[in-house]
Amino acid sequence: MNYTVTVIGVGLIGGSLCHAFKKEGLNTIGVSSQDTIKKAEDLKIIDRGYSYDGIGEAVKEADFVFICTPLLEIGRILPLVIENSKKNCIISDVGSTKSTICSLAERNKKRGVYFVGGHPMAGSEKRGIDNANPYLFYDAVWVITPLKGTPKRVVKSISNLISMVGAKIMILTPELHDKIAANISHLPQFLAVLLTNQLADKNNDLYRNLAAGGFRDMTRIASSDFSIWKGIIETNRDEIFSAMEEYKRRLEKMINSMHDLEFIKSEFEKAAEERKTIPRYSKGFLKPLVDVRVTVRDKPGELAKITNIIYYQGVNIKDIEIINIREGEGGILRLGFSEKREANTAAQALSKFGYDVIIV
After folding, report:
1. What contacts 283, CB < 8 A, 6 or more positions away?
2. Any idea what DSSP says for residue 86?
């Protein structure tokens, strides 16, 4: 394949895409700030780079375009990308909500140019091109949301391209994606914020000192950066509101049934059974473990060496998986840890021994 791929926004996600595509031998063009493009060129993960005012030029020969900017910026850039793309170009994005973006693409559609929404379930605690990694998407679910009437060959083409970077494709409608996200990602975020602020309003160190264990686990995501959530709320407000209303009804019923222990018991039992059905280590909207992904060489003893390094740090590996090993080349080892602290300890130790490591 001699495809040309243009990636707009060469940060963690966009930079990792450039790195992965370049590794596969594709002609890769990056669009970002001048400083970031200089870094991408130094890292040799793009063949050519443009600043944002050169988007029109950067996409005109592309077979595929990925818009990897912050969510609200995607909406500003998308019409310009569609306007300047050649016939049979396939455009996608990596935004975490889909209906608003897909509706915008529908309104700006151009004959022979195709848009397929996308949302990779991949990321890292670190940001920016300095932390780009070609293996970031290995074993992650990548949801795509084709517009109505998109030819099957287009869906197949972009699915094949995304599969090259190690991701697993799931196809949803934009509306269903956003409804699911509102219920299993966006609603929990608001609940974590409210629970944490209820503690904050007590303004009492006795409460804080005892708020460990389960409380910290439940409210981990309360520390999320609002600059990311601003775009999510603005583009998925109706579905978030609907999920909140449904939760409000359940909470009111629980409040009104506090005297009914049989009802409360049935709710506990139902929740316990439902939780058993949730995949333990799958990559979804909310990730259950802190992953350390290690680039490994294809040679005897590598797995034993890595696990021994971690063993001597006194941390416990909760899950281990070998991903996409290529004979003679190597691949990725995924290590799951319960705590971020343990993941950091393992990553630092492995880095000292020369391993390329990313925390996800």
Report:
1. 121, 122, 139, 140, 141
2. P
Contacts with 348 (C-beta within 8 Å, 6 or more apart), sequence order: none
Per-residue pLDDT, averaged over 259-271, amounts to 96
State how far Cα 149 lies from the chain centre. 27
Q: Which of 67, 186, 54, 167 is nearest to 117 (CA)?
A: 67
Q: Is the distance from CB of 163 to CB of 24 less than 8 angstroms?
A: no
Class of CATH domain 177-276: mainly alpha
Residues of the chain with CATH 3.40.50.720: 4-172
Q: What is the pTM of this model?
A: 0.78
**Tell me, what's the pLDDT at 290?**
80
Question: What's the pLDDT tens digit per position in 220-244?
Answer: 889 888 988 999 999 999 999 999 9
276-315: per-residue pLDDT in tens?
887 765 555 555 568 888 888 777 888 888 988 988 888 8
In the structure, what pLDDT confidence band is assigned to residue 325 with cuts at 50, 70 and 90? low
Contact criterion met (CB below 8 Å) for 201 and 157: no
pLDDT at position 287 = 53
**Which helix (H) or strand (E) covers residue 91, if one does?**
strand 90-93
Contact 90, 162 (CB under 8 A): no
pLDDT digits 0-9 by tens, 71-82: 999 999 999 999
The position carrying tokens 């691949």 is: 331
Residue partners of 293: CB distance under 8 A and separation at least 6 = 133, 135, 136, 138, 323, 332, 333, 334, 335, 357, 358, 359, 360
Compute the distance between CA of residue 189 and CA of residue 319 in angstroms, rounded to an integer: 25
81, 113 contact by CB (below 8 A): no
In the chain, which segments carry CATH 1.10.3660.10? 177-276
Whole-number pLDDT of residue 288: 54
CATH 3.30.2130.10 residue ranges of the chain are 290-359
What CATH number does the domain located at 4-172 have? Answer: 3.40.50.720
Report the CATH number of the 290-359 domain.
3.30.2130.10
At 292, which helix (H) or strand (E)? strand 290-296
